[in-house]
Write a structure and sequence with these properties.
The protein has 1 helix and 4 strands. The protein is low in regular secondary structure. The strands form 2 sheets. The protein has a two-stranded antiparallel sheet. The chain is flat and about 45 Å long. It starts with a strand and ends with a strand.
C-alpha cells in the first residue's frame, strides 16, 4: 500500500513483492481483471483441477475470435495464454477464465 498526500492506493503483489501484471489488450481494449488477492493456498496435485491433453490454446483462440473478431494489433504467435488463477492455486479450466498476455 502506498500513501501520498492523504491518498492511499493498494497494489497487488506476491510474497516476493512482485507486482501483479497489468495488461490491456491492444486490440479490443479490454483489461485483464485483477484478482481480489494473491494469497491463494498452494494445492497438492491430487486437489487440483486435472490438466488434460486437450489444446486449450486453440479453443481460446476460436472463442476469442468469435467474441471479438480476428485481432489486428497482435499476432497469436506472440501471445501467451494464462489462467487468471493458476491451477496450482485452485484455478479452473474455463475458457472465459483464460487471458492473453
Amino acid at each position: 500500500m502506498i500513501t501520498r498526500n492523504d491518498r492511499t492506493k493498494s497494489y497487488l503483489a506476491n510474497k516476493k513483492d512482485v507486482l501483479y501484471p497489468s495488461f490491456k489488450n491492444p486490440d479490443n481494449k479490454t483489461t485483464m481483471p485483477m484478482p481480489s488477492t494473491t494469497t491463494y493456498k498452494w494445492l497438492q496435485l491430487n486437489q487440483r483441477v486435472k490438466r488434460t491433453t486437450e489444446d486449450y490454446r486453440d479453443k481460446y483462440i476460436k472463442w476469442y475470435t468469435k467474441k471479438y473478431g480476428a485481432p489486428e494489433k497482435f499476432k497469436w504467435k506472440d501471445m501467451h495464454i494464462h489462467h487468471l488463477r493458476p491451477l496450482n492455486y485452485g484455478g479452473e479450466i474455463i475458457i472465459t477464465l483464460l487471458k492473453i498476455r
